[in-house]
Structure formats: C-alpha cells, structure tokens
Amino acid sequence: MRRAYGRPMDQDTNEPTDRTPEDEAAALALAVVSQAAAITQGDPEAVEASDENLREVVAELTDQPFTARQEDVVATLGTAGGSLAAGLTAALAHEKGVDPAVILGSTSQAIVAQTQTQSPFAGGRDDMADAGRDRGEAGDPRVDRSDDDDSDHAS
Description:
The protein is mainly alpha-helical. The protein has helices spanning 21-41, 44-61, 68-96, 100-113, 127-134; strands spanning 3-4, 7-8. A two-stranded antiparallel sheet has the order 1-2. Strand 1 (3-4) and strand 2 (7-8) form a beta hairpin. The longest helix has 29 residues, at 68-96.
C-alpha cells in the first residue's frame, strides 16, 4: 500500500484511505488468527485459503508487488505465526475446558476492539469466562486435585 504524507493509499484508486496503522495491524493480526483457526480445524483447504488471505492482506500493506521469494517468506511467516497461535490456543482451550473456537473468537474480538473507540470487553461479555461459568468454574480458585486418590471414599 503506498502512502501519501503518512496516510495509506488505496492501490486501485491512488487516493488516500482512512485506514490507520492500527487498522492495518488488526488486519494482519486477524489474518494470523484465521491461519490459527484453519490449523486448529485441521482442514487443508481452510489452511490454503488462510495462506492466500494472508498474502492478500500483506500485499495491501506493501508499496510494491512481492517477488516470488517474498511471497514464500510471507507464507512461511504466516504459517509459523498461525501454528504458534494454534498451539497456544489449543493449550489454553484444554486448560479452560472450552472449545478452541471460543478462544480464537475472543482473540479476534480483542483485535477488532483495539481499533474501536469503545472496547466490547469494557464491561462486555467474555466468552471464555461465560464458558467457564457454565461449567461452574469461573472465578473459583484453581483447586489442585493431584492428591485425590479416592482413599477416603467407602468401597
């Protein structure tokens, strides 16, 4: 994306856009979350679509078209970022006892909220806390049950 006096330029019209650096960062972060979602789903077609989406998002942020090598680097970085996010998402989902999609959805909401004047998280709904509350665990201190051996239960 070309810039005029520090403002992003639309590639098709050569006119300045109202996209802020925060909007651009959010678009890139959402592309990585999309990659993580595709990896988490285990759907090769979704991963391929996410790769293409990432390339398009990055291409919109650059001043000149990518070389083939640069496209490969972007795809590798996207896959690495998506894999890292997918792994962390799966671990957190397992720890919280929620579906990874809930965490990825909350992540996407948080990214979008960073570009908004009012965050939906300020007094808003927290899907992960809601999911934990549904299971009766939200706000409860973590209980270590590793010592439970059922020895004090009658047989």
